[in-house]
Every structure is written in structure tokens, then in C-alpha cells.
Specification:
By secondary structure, the protein is of the alpha/beta class. It has 2 domains: 237 residues, no CATH class; 258 residues, Vaccinia Virus protein VP39 (Rossmann fold, 3-Layer(aba) Sandwich). Helices cover 55% and strands 14% of the residues. The strands form 2 sheets. Strands 7-6-5-8-9-11-10 form a 7-stranded mixed sheet, with helices on both faces. It has a 4-stranded antiparallel sheet with strand order 1-2-3-4, with no helix packed on it. Strand 1 and strand 2 form a beta hairpin. Helix 2 crosses helix 4 and helix 9 packs across helix 10. The termini are far apart.
């Protein structure tokens, strides 16, 4: 019961964890999967009463659980990949113009079904897991040939203990491994449990020889998944990208993918970085994004000697910061695999790619002036505040707040900590998502930074790969960042892309852009409004709409 319960809790976590990755709605996926599995376990417990022979039932049950649990990640990944690859296949088959997207009708319906598929898997797996306790309780009484007074308490007690052990294994072991490896290893343990049970009670089990054959086939499949599964999942995930995937890695913290597009007439190919399926930069226009992120804050600050960067593990914003000749830069990025990749030292990346990324970021991550800290920025910033250190410029280059864990790094509490780290005549700039696609989220970031005590300006520009994009800039004392920048001589704008006129024009919005700002809420740790703003707005922008034609 203890082993079975440990495997069961790991199945719950891995289905919830992976569903959150592929569906995007993290909270809904995690809590939905776990809730459905728990409810299905109750249904499975009721159904177990209809099986007359608990020995046969339990033996076959472990085979089914191991097969479904071990294949679950492959099934979800394959279904999601095919749902998005099919439109491209249809476009090619019918010779459609690339401007015509095959996303409505049956294709849209199929994608909706694929989004429900993880919940269906969770329901089936939960139903099977729920049958274990009734079977074991009945088996114990048959083995001891009497009614056991504390039978239910003993079985449930071991079940709860096993669940706790499984949770610890998930936290300290499974999270450090590729998720497909976790699925296969857990399923093999389930299969081993069933095999030991079959050996011990083979005389009480019906159809034992077909069962042994099926278990042997399942074992072969699971071993194959354990050995090759990571490559299979990567291949299915890579099918989602239109360009050629030249690097893919599921790190402990995120999925990193680099694609390459070769375009005639260009001296070099275009590289795109994706984190968890979301575009982070394209070499075609990354200088626009990184120039707007770094240059205004650096020019608005009285000094640029000591700089703090939150995120930016690709080294591109760091490259632009180093051009201002700071004495010291502290870069905090949670994922060491990201740093290794863009430092050109990833053994899994091809030599040409390692060379290309270091040329792109001008080898900024290996600069002796740079201190790299691989730690959760939320925790590390609290430590910096306690140490009393002060920075002239702070650059926050984080992904959009599309995950609850990221939402805390956009909270008033976190910005207040950064306020304590910034010098009185310094400046801070923050990546602030799209003011067009996610206007409420953009405005909320500005209000949240203001709530932390900063004098705030917001600005925007068009980036072809992203569309309209925005940033937030803040100062602590004296003039606002916009006023400071307006007084900077034009010859100080030495960046390859930005001019003084272009920078100042980015602070101009349409006359009604801030019209409903009083309806926007500040993002706090206790109420993650920003995460909700961001999630709902991008769903609307990427959704399918139907209108009644006259």
C-alpha cells in the first residue's frame, strides 16, 4: 500500500505539472487535475466492489496503472503536437497561401478536445488508483482468514504515509529529472510491485500466464521510454516550431528551445529562443527590445558603476549594459542551464551554436566584471536588502507573468525591495509585456511599481517578432526618468539603434490610452491580479471569434 500510494501521488503531480506546461493555464491545470483524480479515486473505490476476485483484480490493476502512468506524458505530448502540426499539413496538402491560417472548424474542435485530454487521463488514472485500497483491504482479510478490527485504519494509514513519501521523492528527486524519466521510473516501480504480488499469490490469480505476457510487454515499453523517452518528447515538441530546431533542453526550471531560419540574402541565419513555448527573442530584431530595456534606465541614472540585473540569462541585455563601462554587474538568473547555453559551454549544443550565441552577446556572461547568481531572484533580493548594498541601475528582464511563480516577481512587495536597493539618483527599468495585446497587465505593472514608491513613466515601441511592446521606468528622487532623458545630450546616445528623438517619442501614447486606469488594480503577493490580467488578455487575443455576417 505504501509503494502504491507513493507511485499514485507522483502520478498526480507529474500529470498536473506537465498539463500546466502544455496548457498554459497553470493554476487551472494543476488544481483541476488533482481534483479530478481525487474524485475519480472515489469512483474507483466504489467500482472495486464489483470485482469478485481481489487477487486477480489487484494483479491486473497494477499492470494497467503502470501502462497508463508510464505512457501518459508521451500521450499528452503526442496529442498536443499533432493538434498543432495538422493545420500545417493541411495547408501544404491544399496549397494554401501562408496568410490563410487553418485554425477554425474541425481543427479548432480538435484542439479543444486535446486541451481536455490531460483531464481525461487524470480521471482514468485516478479511477484505477482508487481501486487499490479496497482490493488490499479485502486481500488482507482473506490472507489472515478473519475479520481484521483495524484493517481500514492500517491500510489507510500506510496509504497516507506512502503519499507523504511520494511527495518527498517528487520534490527532491523527480523535479530534478526529465518528466518522461519520472513517468517511466514510477511505472516500472508499479510494475515491479505487481510482479512481486503475482509471485506471492500466483495460485489465487486467474489468467496469470496472459498477465505475465502483458506485463513483459509493458516492461519492454517502459524500459524503451526510460532510455529514449526524452528524445521522443523533444521530437514531438520540436514539431510545434515552424523553423528548424537546433537546440532543445528540458531543464529543471523550464523548456529551452532555439530554432534557426535561413533567409536568402542575409549573411547569417535567424535564431529564435523559446522558453516554455513562448518566444523570448529573435536575432532579427532583438536589438530593438534590449535597447529599449537598458538604454533609457542607464541614461536616466546619474551613474552606471554598479548594476543589478534580474533575469536576462541570455546575456543580450547584459551586453548592452557593459557598453556603458560599469565597474560591476550582478546578474541573478535561476537557471544555470540558461547561463551555460549562452556562455557557450553547453555540451549538448553544437559547436557552431555555442560560437554563435557568444558572438551575439559579445561573450558578456564571461566578462570578469559580471557576477552571476543562480538563485531565485525573490529570495536573493531579500538577502541583498539585508546586506545594505545599493545599485545605480536595476534592469528587470523577466518573462511575462504567465506563471504564478513569476507573478511574485511583479508584485508590489518585490518592487519595494528593489526600491530599497536603488540609489537615490538611480533608475530602474522593467520588461512590462504588450500594451496592445495585454493592456491591463501593462497598466497594472506601472501602477504596481508606483505603489512601491517609484516615480513612474511607461513607454513602448514596435518589435516585429512581438508586436507592440512596453516597458516601465522608475526613479526614486528628483526628476522623472523621462525628464532626465530629455536633458541628456544627443551624442550620449551611442547605442547602435536608439536615438534621443526615438527614445522620447516612445513615451507618447494615444490620448485615451490611460482613460480607464482607475479600474486597474495593483498586483500584490496575496492577490495575483497581474497573472489573471495577462492570462485572460492573451487568451482573448489568440482565441477564435465568430461574427454574424449580414
Amino acid at each position: 500500500m505504501t509503494v502504491g500510494a507513493a507511485c499514485g501521488i507522483i502520478y498526480e503531480y507529474l500529470l498536473a505539472h506537465y498539463s500546466g506546461r502544455i496548457l498554459g493555464s497553470i493554476d487551472v491545470a494543476i488544481f483541476g487535475i488533482i481534483g479530478i483524480m481525487v474524485a475519480s479515486m472515489g469512483l474507483g473505490a466504489f467500482f472495486a466492489r464489483t470485482i469478485k476476485n481481489p487477487f486477480t483484480g489487484f494483479a491486473w490493476l497494477e499492470a494497467l496503472i503502470s501502462a497508463l502512468g508510464g505512457l501518459s506524458i508521451l500521450l499528452m505530448s503526442g496529442a498536443m503536437s499533432y493538434a498543432f502540426v495538422l493545420p500545417a499539413q493541411l495547408e501544404q496538402s491544399f496549397g494554401l497561401d501562408p496568410s490563410i491560417a487553418v485554425e477554425g472548424g474541425a481543427v479548432y474542435g480538435m484542439r479543444q478536445l486535446v486541451n481536455l485530454f490531460p483531464y481525461l487521463l487524470g480521471a482514468l488514472l485516478g479511477f484505477l488508483i482508487g481501486m487499490e485500497i479496497p482490493f488490499i483491504a479485502r486481500i488482507r482479510e482473506i490472507v489472515y482468514s478473519k475479520h481484521l478490527t483495524n484493517n481500514a485504519g492500517t491500510v489507510y494509514g500506510m496509504d497516507y504515509i506512502g503519499g507523504g513519501i511520494g511527495a518527498l521523492i517528487w520534490i527532491f528527486i523527480c523535479l530534478k529529472q526529465p518528466i518522461i524519466i519520472t513517468a517511466a521510473a514510477t511505472a516500472l516501480l508499479n510494475l515491479l510491485l505487481g510482479a512481486i504480488f503475482c509471485i506471492a499469490f500466483r495460485k489465487k490469480i486467474s489468467f496469470v500466464f496472459p498477465l505475465i505476457l502483458i506485463k513483459s510487454i509493458i516492461a519492454i515499453i517502459l524500459v524503451s521510454i526510460f532510455i529514449n523517452g526524452t528524445g521522443w518528447v523533444n521530437a514531438m515538441n520540436n514539431a510545434l516550431y515552424k523553423d528548424n530546431v537546433v537546440y532543445s533542453n528540458n531543464t529543471r526550471f523550464q523548456n529551452l528551445v532555439i530554432t534557426e531560419r535561413k533567409v536568402g540574402g542575409l549573411s547569417s541565419s535567424i535564431l529564435n529562443l523559446y522558453i516554455n513555448g513562448r518566444l523570448q527573442f529573435s536575432t532579427a530584431d532583438e536589438k530593438i527590445y534590449h535597447s529599449f530595456l537598458t538604454v533609457p534606465a542607464l541614461l536616466a541614472s546619474a551613474r552606471q558603476d554598479n548594476v543589478l540585473m534580474i533575469g536576462g540569462g541570455d546575456g543580450l541585455a547584459l551586453r548592452d549594459v557593459l557598453r556603458f563601462e560599469p565597474q560591476r554587474v550582478t546578474l541573478v538568473d535561476i537557471d544555470p542551464a540558461m547561463i551555460n547555453l549562452f556562455r557557450g559551454s553547453d555540451e549538448n549544443a553544437e559547436a557552431w551554436l555555442n560560437s554563435r550565441v557568444t558572438v551575439l552577446n559579445e561573450n558578456s556572461l564571461s566578462d570578469p566584471r559580471v557576477q552571476i547568481v543562480n538563485r531565485d531572484a525573490f529570495i536573493h533580493v531579500e538577502g541583498l536588502v539585508q546586506s545594505g548594498v545599493v545599485f545605480d541601475v536595476i534592469i528587470v528582464d523577466l518573462p511575462d507573468p504567465s506563471h504564478p511563480d513569476l507573478n511574485k516577481l511583479y508584485s508590489a512587495y518585490f518592487y519595494r525591495q528593489l526600491y530599497n536597493l536603488l540609489s537615490g539618483d538611480g533608475a530602474i527599468s522593467i520588461q512590462s509585456t504588450s500594451p496592445y495585446h495585454s493592456k491591463k497587465a501593462f497598466l497594472s505593472i506601472g501602477l504596481t511599481v508606483k505603489e512601491a514608491g517609484f516615480d513612474v513613466d511607461q513607454y513602448h515601441s514596435n518589435i516585429p517578432s512581438f508586436g507592440e511592446w512596453g516597458w516601465t521606468i522608475g526613479t526614486k528622487q528628483g526628476q522623472t526618468a523621462k525628464v532626465r532623458i530629455s536633458s541628456v545630450p544627443a551624442d550620449k546616445f551611442t547605442n547602435d539603434f536608439l536615438s534621443k528623438e526615438m527614445t522620447l517619442s516612445s513615451f507618447v501614447f494615444s490620448k485615451d490610452f490611460f482613460k480607464n486606469i482607475d479600474d486597474i488594480e495593483v498586483n500584490r503577493l496575496t492577490v495575483p491580479v497581474l497573472y489573471n490580467y495577462h492570462s485572460s488578455s492573451w487568451i482573448k487575443q489568440q482565441g477564435v471569434y465568430h461574427t454574424d455576417a449580414e
